[in-house]
Design goal:
This protein is mainly alpha-helical. It has one domain. It contains 22 helices and no strands. The longest helix has about 40 residues. The radius of gyration is 36 Å and the shape is globular.
Length: about 450
């Protein structure tokens, strides 16, 4: 076991905390479509995803090496720099989780690390070539490639299954969706858990605990896998709701196509050592699957908010990381102040999230609110006539009551009136001239005022 200083222990604990937030922040990537289509119950889905994330953490270390050996100059990095980077990444993860936006945990970590490294050692501490080729270019290309693949796969799925038995085909697609979601979870553990491994390994190198260029130790791999699995099991239900219901409405065929396309892209990037954002990949594949079905609709308002969050992730986390590094550079009390700020901010965000609780019981219960155009049309469209108001009164009334009402409204004949009221019938007739005399006007009817 490596020798630990206090700051190094703090960095490792903070890195595992980030890994935990990465787990519940990215659960939607693997299981949102599976939950939204009903292929798996919510709690079963997150438990399966957690187990496969843990297994995936042991499959490769290529992405971990990209972070620990390639992105920043490890010789000029202190453990405090990595701690500041993790603060920026954790806060961005929590903020986007609070508003239900599936942003990239990977880019939050990269942004925090870049900002803290620049604040500590200048721009030369960041390897620009690695940043462009293994972070930025995959971030742009991955959602496009995954989206096109999912769109084509969805159309093929509907075309091939057009003549098949509907119930049997749906059952088969659900089974395939479960398998592909498991593959995404495995790929997520392979890709995202390695990022925390890389950060911890970088901290160990910076603290002199292991030699430069070393691969992640076994205990680092195990702890990172357990942290991301636990976070996945907790379930980031807010983001699951956005990904599963807020972006588009998916059928089992679409869910299968989206998950298969995403898993293929993630596994390929992990093999090549690209620090790919699983959020970008899965979001692109979900939109592609939504467009691949005839009559399918993508809610572009939600997609636009997601795109804005993607663009802001790197610079926002970098600014927070740089600010935290400047404070930690003041000494031990500065590091303690940053740690206190992280804990207090996390507590406030959690408190705000309790105002509207989203969990496995209501993750599929709410839909994205209607857009401006839909609301305007609804406002000017007259409501349908009430069936009670449109029905005739006689038809609504019970038969005995209708008969009584008809009898009460019947006008009696004159001879019946004479028989019923003999006094009025035998009264002397009024002369015609008197009867024809007009009634006095209002001015005539008022008596003259008294003369004083």
């Amino acid at each position: 076991m490596e020798s630990f200083s206090l700051i190094l222990a703090i960095v490792v604990i903070t890195a595992l905390a980030f890994d935990f937030t990465n787990g519940f922040h990215d659960t939607a990537n693997a299981m949102a479509t599976t939950i939204s289509t009903g292929a798996l119950k919510p709690k079963v889905a997150v438990a399966l995803s957690a187990a496969l994330n843990l297994v995936g953490a042991f499959l490769s270390v290529e992405v971990a090496n990209t972070i620990s050996k390639g992105l920043v100059d490890e010789t000029g990095i202190r453990p405090e720099v990595i701690f500041a980077a993790l603060v920026g990444a954790i806060l961005w993860n929590l903020l986007t989780w609070l508003v239900g936006l599936p942003s990239s945990s990977s880019h939050a970590l990269m942004g925090g690390l870049i900002g803290a490294a620049i604040a500590s050692a200048g721009f030369g501490a960041v390897h620009g070539g690695v940043l462009v080729t293994k972070v930025l270019l995959p971030a742009v290309a991955a959602p496009v490639v995954a989206g096109l693949a999912a769109m084509v796969s969805t159309r093929l799925s509907y075309t091939i299954g057009r003549k098949s038995d509907g119930r049997a085909a749906e059952k088969g697609h659900r089974a395939g969706q479960i398998a592909s979601a498991g593959l995404v979870s495995l790929a997520h553990g392979t890709n995202d858990a390695q990022k925390t491994m890389g950060v911890i390994t970088l901290a160990l190198i910076a603290g002199g605990a292991i030699a430069p260029g070393s691969n992640p130790p076994t205990w680092v791999i195990l702890s990172a896998g357990l942290a991301i699995a636990l976070g996945t099991y907790i379930g980031g239900w807010r983001i699951i709701r956005t990904m599963g219901k807020g972006l588009t409405d998916l059928q089992p065929q679409q869910g299968f196509a989206a998950q298969t396309s995403a898993a293929t892209a993630i596994l390929a990037s992990s093999h090549l050592g690209f620090s790919l954002s699983t959020t970008h990949v899965v979001s692109g594949s979900v939109m592609g699957a939504g467009l691949g079905r005839k009559g399918g609709v993508v809610r572009w308002s939600t997609a636009t908010r997601m795109a804005v969050a993607w663009v802001l992730t790197l610079p926002a986390a970098a600014l927070v990381g740089a600010g935290a590094e400047l404070v930690t550079g003041l000494g031990d009390w500065g590091t303690a102040l940053v740690a206190l700020f992280l804990v207090a901010s996390s507590a406030v965000i959690y408190k705000l999230s309790r105002r509207e609780v989203v969990d496995h019981t209501n993750v599929n219960g709410d839909e994205e609110p209607a857009g401006v155009v839909t609301q305007a049309i609804a406002a000017v469209t007259p409501p349908p006539a009430s069936p009670v108001a449109a029905e005739p009164a006689a038809a609504r009334a019970p038969e005995p009551f209708a008969a009584q009402a008809a009898e009460a409204l019947t006008v009696p004949a004159p001879e019946d009136l004479a028989a019923a009221f003999p006094a009025q019938a035998t009264a002397p007739a009024v002369p015609a001239a008197q009867a024809a005399e007009p009634a006095p006007t209002a001015a005539q009817a008022v008596p003259p005022a008294a003369t004083v």
